[in-house]
Structures are given as structure tokens and as C-alpha cells.
Specification:
The protein is built from 2 helices and 22 strands. By secondary structure, it is mainly β.
Amino acid sequence: MTEAIKPLSDVMGSLSENYGRYYGLLEFQTAQLDGSGLFSTRRFSRKAWIFSGLVTEKYITGFAIVDAGVVATAFCYIQDRTTGEYLEEKAVKPYGFVEEFTPTLKNSWKIQDGRKIWKFDPQVDSYKFEYLGKDFSLHFNMKDNENGISTIAPSEGRPFHFTYKNMNLNSDVVLSLGNKEIKFNGNIGVIDFSKGYPPRETFWNWASFVGITGSGKEFALNATAIFNDGLENIYWLDKKPYPLGKATFSYEKPISENTTLIKDDSGLLSLEFLPEGKRSEKLDALILKSNFTQAFGKFKGKIIHMGEEILVSGSGLVEEHYALW
């Protein structure tokens, strides 16, 4: 039986006693768990990141800032789906965030590496993302709404892990390529804010896509396997969220070159992902390792919604990520 989505008012006491899915953005502090100093839980166990993507017929983008405790990372990429042109910039900064930094969607985040700057700033009614680089720059404002989902999940050997996801978000975008400025907008945005204490050794598959149904309604999906106990598996139909069961991802490696089949154990979901490109990275910082591939491309398949089989299609990404952190 797929667990229902609950109101935020149901969250009481310690987050590790409140595993589940909740409507809206849960705000919380971790200072008592984090401690202080170079060898603190804040530096060696607590992880936080913001990822945001934009999906259109012409472009797929990814933007991320990560506070992994002893190191901070950031990346921004854009793929022109009509030409195959791919641009990416990234940064790795030891102790890139000060010890007192509290990662939330209400605070500003910034990573700078020479002339490259990644910034996240909350606005009154939106989120502002900026990447400023030499070869390209990306600026976008993304409006959130009441349809986001917070997840509190168990984490082996650690207190809990939290994530907030929302999809089909209205976004105004400015892409600068040399002397050319390109503007586009629409309900094309996704946001992933995660914070907590993932297991020391972590593996996940992740899928995120924005699309439509066969009848033209907006559709979006967020799904993971082997992480967060499947609790963040959600689909949005006409912007309203609905829960899914645990997911399985079936594919031959590398994930960026082969079809991925995605199903959930409640029997509601059956998807096929066809890759067009990828963003990949390997990090080895002694106590922190990461092997990451984010493939982007097209989805097609079906969902059974309220007993009715609905055809869905769209674009987005699948991910394979191993981390020792």
C-alpha cells in the first residue's frame, strides 16, 4: 500500500520519528545534531544541496550547489537538443561554506571559483538562480507553489535524510551565449532541495521529468531507487501531487547510452527513458568520493491514475550516483 501524503502539521518532535511524505516545505534546524569544529557532524555527516533544472524542446539545463561538509561543489550545464552542443562549468572548493552556514531555501547560497560564480537567492515569491561564467551565463527566476512535497526518510546509521521536490514550476530564463541573449519561459522548472545525514556509503538512481499526458495535461515525475526508502516517489498531474511506491530502474551500463526502464512496486508506473546526452563526474578527495552520471533525454510510458491508464511523455534526466561521504 502506497503511503499517503500528510499535512506538515503532523510533523512533531524529532524528525527521525516522523518518516513520511508531507505537503509543502518543511523548515527545520540541525544545530543540535551538527556540533562544531573540523571533525564535527556538520563537516563529516551533514550534506545539503540545491539542484534545479529547466526542460524545453530545445534546451535541458542543470544547476547545482552542494555543501558536502568538508567540500563544496557546484556545476551548471546546458545542452542544445537541436544541435547537440553541450556547455558545462564546475567547481570544487574545500570547506567552501563556513561552519555557521545554515542551508535552507530561505537563505542565500554562493560558490565562487575565479570568474565563475554560482548563486541562489530567495525572493518574495520566487527563487533566483544565477550562473556567471566566461563562455555562458544562465539566470532564471522560478516560482514555487503549494504543491511541493517534503520527505523525511530513514538513513542507515544516521538520524534522517530530508528532501523537498516540486515540478512544472513557472520559470523566466535568460541564457547568455557570447554576445547573444536568449529568453524563454513556461512551466519548465524543477527544484530539489536536500538536507540531512545520508548513509556514509550511498547509492541511488533518480529520475526527474516534465511532460504532458496524451490528452495534453501537465505531468511530472520524481522517483528514486535504493535511497530514501522510496518516499520521495511522486507524480504531479495538473500540478497536483500523488504518491508512488518504491521504484526499480532496469538498464545496461552505461546509463547514459542505454534505455532505462522505470517501474514502481504498486504497479502504477511504467516508463522508458531514451538518453540524448550526459553530465558525469568522478571525485576522489580521500574521505569523500563520488561517481556520478546524469543522463538527459526523453521519457515515454504510462501511469495508472485513479484506475485510468494515462499515456505520458516528456523530457528530463535519469541519474546513477555512488558516494562515499
